[in-house]
Design a protein that fits this description.
By secondary structure, the protein is of the alpha+beta class. The protein is 41% helix and 19% strand. It folds into three domains: 116 residues, no CATH class; 142 residues, no CATH class; 187 residues, Nucleotidyltransferase, domain 5 (2-Layer Sandwich), CATH 3.30.420. Helix 1 packs across helix 4.
Length: 584
């Protein structure tokens, strides 16, 4: 039995000082939590800035402490074993547990920098011999770069780092020697990571199915001078409905956002283990341009994949149109804001027009942020709605695995204008993460398969050589687009996204023995595309009661050829109808 970890966003509206019984209002609680988060941020930023050099990053990357022992997984323990201590400013009293939280946040930032450092070193080592145009690079050059990079690096990361290195070379005339030359120390968020603390700084207990109590020490002043400037505060927390009663609550993270105290509360739920292989029934989903998700159900029978012929479609046309309108409005506001900023740069503060333009610029900035927040909320809602639909379809079909296209090979390139904007605005990454989270609750595995050629070739031929031809859809005979396709070899005519979904199911079921699990993230993927022809399962329809009664009436009550429903009447008001029906 494994555990599924998720984070519930909670809010603390008030608190009670444990010793005196004083009720702390929301405004005062926000101030005290901001003081604690500010102390942790200053300590973390100072520690990261001190260790932002190649020698210290090499010491952290080697994984061995000063005593010769391996560094532990906990970040604050690893930094202390390396001897990287941090102390508060003069005259400020901070307990050791707050120092632990600061060191934990610094260790996470530095370990994340090690990943970026590996990418920069590999790309900088091979960038000197690469042609400037990425399309002219050979397969051997790409393969050599892949061997130097860690697993799971997407082409988008490679492209972004290549642009960053090229910009540095154009500015300085040489390639960067290390990540520290390419980037400044990262910005540190104002938050307190309580995962590194113990009962001397906080306690957490569940008081009901939808409530919990957080007990934490907070400073009573911005710069506490002694232990008397710290006090225990009890924060009642209301749990969202997504936290089940049997979930185990973990240590949260405190931060201040928009005048509220946010409590990011992780919780663990016991789930069953979903095997990587041995699947018989599966669902495959294709990312589409007009339709967000198109799925198909397949069954592995005798080395072949049989599909039931029923397409599963998640249509998000309405919400996609709304998101497109919001993106257009966001770009319009950003253009106006940049225009006003350029005008302000030409004016002096003494100019009477400066104050008016500054006020208008501030209003546009606030409105731009509101539109961006609206887009983020709609994207999140769309992602979880689509993921919930996909998992429900897989559970209803009895599938034990869901196959998705590998997002690393899906990029919005090669198209123009509106199509490119719609592809780049989709929330495929959020949907994939949401599907993994929701499928784990149903003990359904999620595996990614190669995306190349899924929409190009016919699923019935199965050889990967019979390319589909685009033809007018049955409901749009006067238009020829990408939605409908036909195969000249076998005569298949179907929706293009549905054909891709069938090929995704086939690649997953036939190549499931090549499934690999990432060591750190746990994501499962199939790197080799195994092709096979997909047959459509024949469904035997059971005759209805009315059909059985009609058949018995024709054969039993009337002799053959004397059924009045088969012999046209010679006269009557409906004689022409009967005659017309018999002459067809």
């Amino acid at each position: 039995m494994s555990k599924l970890t998720a984070t519930a966003p909670c809010t603390a509206h008030a608190a009670v000082v444990e010793q005196s019984g004083e009720i702390v209002s929301q405004a005062l609680l926000v101030q005290r939590v901001a003081w604690l988060a500010g102390l942790a941020r200053d300590l973390t930023a100072r520690l990261v800035a001190e260790r932002w050099n190649p020698a210290d990053l090499d010491a952290l990357a080697c994984g061995v402490g000063l005593d010769g022992r391996a560094l532990p997984s906990k970040g604050w323990m690893a930094l202390r074993r390396l001897g990287w201590a941090v102390a508060p400013a003069a005259g400020v009293h901070v307990c050791d547990r707050v120092l632990r939280c600061a060191q934990e946040q610094a260790a996470r930032a530095l370990r994340l920098a090690l990943h970026r450092r590996t990418l920069v070193a590999a790309i900088a080592a091979i960038a000197a011999t690469w042609p400037a145009d990425a399309r002219k690079r050979t397969g051997a050059e790409w393969q050599a770069l892949r061997k130097m990079l860690p697993d799971g690096v997407s082409p988008a990361e490679i492209r972004n780092r290549t642009r960053q290195i090229r910009a540095y070379r154009d500015e300085h005339g040489a390639l960067p020697a290390d990540l520290t030359d390419l980037e400044e120390p990262p910005n540190i968020a104002a938050q307190i990571v309580l995962a590194a603390a113990d009962r001397q700084l906080l306690t957490l207990e569940r008081t009901g199915e939808d409530s919990a109590r957080l007990r934490v020490r907070l400073p009573l002043a911005e710069s506490p001078a002694s232990g008397r400037d710290w006090a225990w505060h009890v924060l009642p927390i209301t749990l969202p409905p997504t936290v089940p009663p049997q979930a185990k609550l973990c240590t949260p993270t405190l931060r201040v956002s928009k005048g509220r105290v946010r409590v990011d509360l992780p919780f663990q739920t016991p789930i069953g283990f979903a095997p990587a292989t041995g699947h018989v029934v599966a669902c495959g989903f294709d990312w589409g341009l007009n339709t967000l998700l198109t799925g198909a159900t397949g069954r592995l029978t005798g080395g072949r994949v049989l599909c039931d012929g029923r397409p599963l479609t998640y249509d998000a046309t309405g919400i996609s149109a709304k998101l497109h309108r919001l993106r257009t409005e966001r770009e319009h506001l950003a253009a106006k804001h940049e225009h006003l900023e350029r005008l302000l740069a030409r004016l002096t503060p003494a100019d009477p027009r400066h104050a008016k333009l500054a006020a208008a610029c501030e209003v546009l900035g606030v409105e731009h942020e509101r539109v961006c927040a609206r887009i983020r909320h709609l994207n999140k809602a769309l992602a979880w709605s689509a993921a919930r639909w996909a998992v429900d379809q897989a559970a209803a079909a009895g599938a034990t695995v869901v196959y998705l296209e590998d997002l690393a090979t899906l990029e919005a390139r090669g198209r123009r204008g509106r199509a490119n904007a719609r592809l780049s605005g989709q929330v495929r990454g959020q949907i994939a993460e949401a599907i993994r989270h929701l499928a784990a609750k149903h003990t359904i595995a999620v595996v990614t398969v190669p995306a190349r050629g899924t929409s190009k070739y016919c699923p019935r031929c199965g050889t990967g050589t019979s390319a589909l031809q685009h033809c007018p859809a049955p409901d749009r005979l006067t238009e020829k687009g990408w939605a409908w396709a036909s195969c000249p070899a076998c005569g298949l005519s179907c929706d293009r996204d549905w054909a891709a979904a069938e090929r995704i199911v086939s690649r997953g079921l036939l190549g499931q023995q090549a499934t690999r699990t990432h060591r750190t993230t746990g994501e499962r993927t199939i790197g080799t595309a195994v092709e096979g022809n997909i047959a459509r399962a024949r469904r035997t329809r059971k005759p209805t009661r009315a059909a059985r009664r009609a058949r018995r009436t024709r054969t039993d009550l009337h002799p053959r050829g004397t059924d009045p429903r088969t012999v046209p009447p010679r006269n009557g008001p409906h004689a022409h109808r009967a005659t017309r029906s018999t002459t067809r």
